[in-house]
Specification:
The chain is α+β, with helices and mostly antiparallel strands. It is built from 17 helices and 12 strands. The protein has 4 domains: 166 residues, no CATH class; 29 residues, no CATH class; 121 residues, CBS-domain (Roll); 76 residues, Uridine Diphospho-n-acetylenolpyruvylglucosamine Reductase, domain 3. α8 packs antiparallel against α9.
Length: 429
């Protein structure tokens, strides 16, 4: 009977420990999905994980249950096991009565503590962290009953704790399912190692996670590759040039490219051409100007707020540095995608396993087959090589940059044009 009571008390402790860790670790999206599919336990759990205050009460209830079961187990062990063990120790070790009582109490306390930590805490914690959804659903009914039983106690303890925090100048808060960027990246890495994510998916998630650390300068189409229209040309010439261009949205300038006045959609130009007095001003749309130091996540916010698809990028002196579009952001995250401003044929695999890369190819487009990520601020392969070397290499040079073997195929005194890359680990097969 004594053993059964001890097993029950440790089991109760294990339930509360598992419920606490599972409630914090369980993905809300998975609980919501199960609740919407009609699963009763998920419908009970969803209000808890969706509300920070409810989750705070849930955790408090778990902690009360853990404390109560531990105290009861200790008191029960001292009243039963210690009493039964005292004469055994006194006879076996020839101890005095008072010494036998103290020794039996210590032995029982240490033994029950170790048993409870292993079976009642460490094991359920590990199970809850490995299978948070299953454990959270399995423990939600006992926790629901406990919340009702401990409701008055939770109010008193939470209220006291919050009052102490207010006196200490700490704002009141609750348990929330929030993770830092580093924690999310760790989760992505763990999912990749566990086979839940493929290498391409994990790469995209990491790049999306760090959009805030990248600047517009790193993803923009540079000024030398911009395809813009001179608004001083006759309207018929503008229509002809727009028709020849592979782009649907074209920036427009007056006089020089430094004087951007807006952009036009090729469809609007073709419709305006039907008028006898075709006029650029009627189809010209305002263009967004952004600095090249702007973070990519802020760029997305600005484009969304202004319902724009593209923006002209300016440098620190106010000059035009390039052009950036929503497609450029997607390419940076997803890798090579069809992009109306991208140069075709920027990478070509050669028979010897090397890859010929145009210097203006973005680093993000090359990382999947380069295997490694190049540190640095420059957005293009050529710019990254110059940045890492601190100089413009000459044609014919053989280099190793960040473990990647490079042969400069073509270069001018001012810039690299074409590079032959041998990826880490040998040529690409």
């Amino acid at each position: 009977m004594i053993v059964l009571v001890i097993v029950v008390l440790i089991g109760i402790n294990a339930i509360y420990v598992a419920a606490e860790f599972a409630a914090v670790a369980v993905p809300r999206s998975r609980v919501r999905q199960a609740a919407e599919s009609g699963q009763r336990l998920a419908q009970i759990l969803l209000p808890v994980v969706d509300d920070a205050r409810a989750l705070d009460r849930y955790i408090a209830c778990s902690q009360i249950g853990i404390t109560a079961s531990s105290l009861v187990l200790g008191a029960f062990g001292q009243a039963t096991l210690a009493v039964a063990l005292r004469p055994v120790l006194a006879d076996a070790l020839a101890l005095e009565p008072l010494t036998a009582i103290s020794t039996a109490a210590v032995v029982v306390l240490v033994g029950l503590t170790v048993l409870q930590m292993v079976v009642g805490e460490l094991v359920p914690k590990s199970l809850a962290l490995q299978f948070p959804t299953q454990v959270a659903l399995a423990t939600v009914l006992p926790m629901r009953w406990s919340l009702r039983a401990f409701s008055w106690f939770i109010v008193v303890l939470n209220g006291s704790g919050n009052q102490l925090l207010r006196w200490a100048g700490v704002p009141e808060g609750g348990h929330r399912h929030v993770h830092s960027a580093d924690e999310i990246e760790y989760i992505i890495a763990e999912s990749r190692a566990g086979g839940m994510l493929g290498p391409e998916s994990s790469r995209r998630l990491r790049r999306a996670l760090h959009l805030g650390s990248r600047t517009v300068r790193q993803i923009m189409v540079p000024r030398t590759r911009m395809n813009a229209l001179n608004g001083d040309l006759p309207f018929a010439d503008l229509v002809a040039r727009a028709a020849e261009s592979p782009h649907t949205r074209l920036p427009v300038y007056r006089g020089t490219i430094e004087d951007m006045v807006g952009y036009v959609h090729s469809r609007d130009l073709l419709l305006e051409r039907r008028r006898a007095d075709g006029n650029l001003a009627r189809v010209l749309r305002p263009i967004v100007l952004v600095p090249d130091s702007l973070r990519v996540d802020r760029l997305l916010s600005q484009l969304r707020e202004q319902h724009a698809q593209l923006a002209v990028v300016t440098d620190e002196f106010g000059g035009v540095a390039g052009l950036v579009t929503i497609g450029d952001v997607l390419t940076d995250v997803m890798g090579a995608l069809p992009n109306e401003f991208a140069t075709e044929g920027t990478a070509e695999r050669l028979p010897d396993g090397r890859v010929r890369v145009a210097a203006l190819t973005r680093v993000g487009e090359c990382e999947p087959w380069l295997v490694a990520a190049w540190p640095g601020r420059a957005g293009t392969v050529g710019g990254r090589v110059v940045e890492r070397l601190g100089r413009v290499p000459k044609a014919g040079e053989h280099l190793v940059v960040d473990g990647i073997t490079l042969d400069i195929e073509s270069a001018t005194p001012r810039a690299v044009r074409s590079i032959l890359v041998t990826p880490p680990g040998g040529p690409v097969k």
